[in-house]
Amino acid sequence: MKRLVPHAFAALALALLATAGHAVEILRWERLPLAVPLVVGQERIVFVDRNVRVGVPASIGGRLRVQSAAGAVYLLANEPIEPSRLQLQDADTGAVILLDIAAEPAQEGQPPLEPVRIIESRQPSHGDPAADTPGTAATAPQRPTPVPVALTRHAAQSLYAPLRTIEPVPGITRANLRRDLPLHSLLPTLPVRAEGLAAWRLDDLWVSAVRLRNTAAHGLDLDPRALQGRFMTATFQHATLGPAGTPEDTTVVYLVTRSHGLAQALLPAIGPVDAALNLPVPPATDLDDGGRNAK
User: Fold this and answer.
1) Fewest CB within a 10 Å sphere: which of 9, 71, 121, 137?
2) Which segments of the chain belong to CATH 2.60.40.1080?
3) For the whole model, what pTM was predicted?
4) Does pLDDT of 126 surpass 60?
């Protein structure tokens, strides 16, 4: 009799879960695309427990509604969709998870699809027993690439490369960068218009991506020595700028700073000086009253 009690409780628990409808399908990410089937007209939730950006093929953009909020991705197909691939990119680290979706019309009597939760498999550490032992505290990561180089490369890939090709770098997070930040003092000797695009942070270093656009009718050579500010490193996406109005008139410069972002690294802007303000004020004379009081 005693041996039947646990089975009874287990059956009761399963029944409660089934009636409550709280079942969640677990998918393990092991660098292989994960199959997430959809039903037309039914929204399916994918829990990833991280802030992600979703890359959707243009061919299905009008048939699939995608929303991402608070670590969950909401997928709703309003028409049948052939097998297609979505990319979930971690907004902080750049890591990518691939989903293979396909949407079919609902069948009569078909139960609603369960939500999906994606968990990541821990990769073996090859020769590091401490890292393979559960509960062992991780040590500070050893970075084979200098931090300024890793930051600059990540920023360039994030702006120019497809999502699937971005190399994930543990520890990199997105930082705030004001779009209206005044950048007139960045390259004061060149006829360029500068605009802040985005920024990232790793440890105590920041990288800020700034768009440069040539406003002159002739080409320009870009030299890091012409930059004004307190920067650790500066890297131009292109070494030259074409004349204004050509496809080559725009590029990006990546500025790495320590302990603060771009705003604190810029030199203060100096306004034009009116020399007349420094002239002494002449003393009042008897001629000021038209000579009426002249003696």
Assistant:
1) 137
2) 23-105+113-120
3) 0.50
4) no
